[in-house]
Structure formats: structure tokens, C-alpha cells
């Protein structure tokens, strides 16, 4: 289980979409020195398939994404 990994400080799983054959979830993992391959292996053992990684945040603090408005709005 991912929650037993000492490098992981927290996990958030959110169901995003359900159709006939699949359930799409968003997985957010926070921690230090995370190992993608071991995380992927645990998820795949649970029956998950990773289709994309939408965001990676690194550094000493979280930097939030900002949406800029066009100048003429």
C-alpha cells in the first residue's frame, strides 16, 4: 500500500468520471524523494493503468498555477 511508504506524507484519490468500462481517478501524492516506478508498480498491482501525468510540483514550497486574463478583457 502506498500509505505505508515512509517517503509519502499524504495521498488524495478523487473519482473524476465513470463510464461503462472504466473509472477515472485523480491521484495526488505528496512526499519527499518519491519513486515514480515503485508508485506505478503498486498502482498497477491494484489494477490501475496510468494514462497521463498532468502536473509535477517541486521545490521548497508549493507554487500555485495562475491563469492570466487577456489584456483587453
What's the short story on this structure?
The protein has 1 helix and 2 strands, in the order ββα. A two-stranded antiparallel sheet has the order 1-2.
Proportion in helices: 10-25%
CATH superfamily placement: MTH889-like domain
How many helices? The count is 1
Which runs of at least 5 residues are low in confidence (pLDDT < 50)? none
**Compute the gyration radius: what is it?**
16 Å
What global shape is seen? flat
The profile of the biggest β sheet is:
2 strands, antiparallel
Work out the strand percent: 25-35%
Alpha carbon gap, first and last residue: 48 Å
Main β-sheet, spatial strand arrangement: 1-2
CATH topology: Alpha-Beta Plaits
Could you name the CATH class? Alpha Beta
- The secondary-structure element order is EEH
Name the CATH architecture.
2-Layer Sandwich
DSSP strand tally: 2
Q: What is the average per-residue confidence, as pLDDT, rounded to a whole number? A: 85
SS-derived structural category: alpha+beta
Total separate domains: 1
Q: What's the structural blueprint in terms of helices and strands?
A:
Layout: E1 8-18, E2 23-31, H1 36-45
Antiparallel strand pairs: 1-2
Task: Explain what this protein looks like in three dimensions.
The structure is a single chain. With 73 residues, this protein is α+β, with helices and mostly antiparallel strands. The protein has a single domain, classed as MTH889-like domain (Alpha-Beta Plaits, 2-Layer Sandwich), CATH 3.30.70.1340. It is 14% helix and 27% strand. The protein has a two-stranded antiparallel ribbon with strand order 1-2.
